[in-house]
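#struct-help
A.M.: can someone run this one for me? Single chain, 134 residues.
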Amino acid sequence: MKNMKILCVFFVLLSAVVNAEDRNYSQQFARCSKVASSSDAQADCVTAEIAVQKKRLNIAFANAAKKLAPEDKTYLDKVQHEWITWRDDNYNFLAEHVSGSFGATRGTSLDFMLRSVFDRASELEMMSDEMGGN
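D.P.: on it. Structure tokens below:
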């Protein structure tokens, strides 16, 4: 049973690597994931990539915000705050309120955070590109 739990944790964390084919995560993440030999090592790779994607998200937000009229920027600020609350609440739910081993819930919550931050940064980049300008 313990081996089955370890295997499940590994596959949950591996899903971030598999999803990397659908999302253009950093080369650093690809290298890290390739050599990660345990679920803890893979979790460290995901955590580091979350930091990379959060930086990307902040840049994308700033670029989009500077292209908006003041009232639209205020609305974007509100929407972004609500998105962060939603993201953090979902992460906390997955990490703290879903039954399962620590490793499995950790893997699921980290994968959620990585995908969410990546996707939100992509949305903001697309929005900024569509607005043109700066």
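A.M.: thanks! The chain has a mean pLDDT of 85.
D.P.: also worth noting: The two ends are 56 Å apart (CA to CA).
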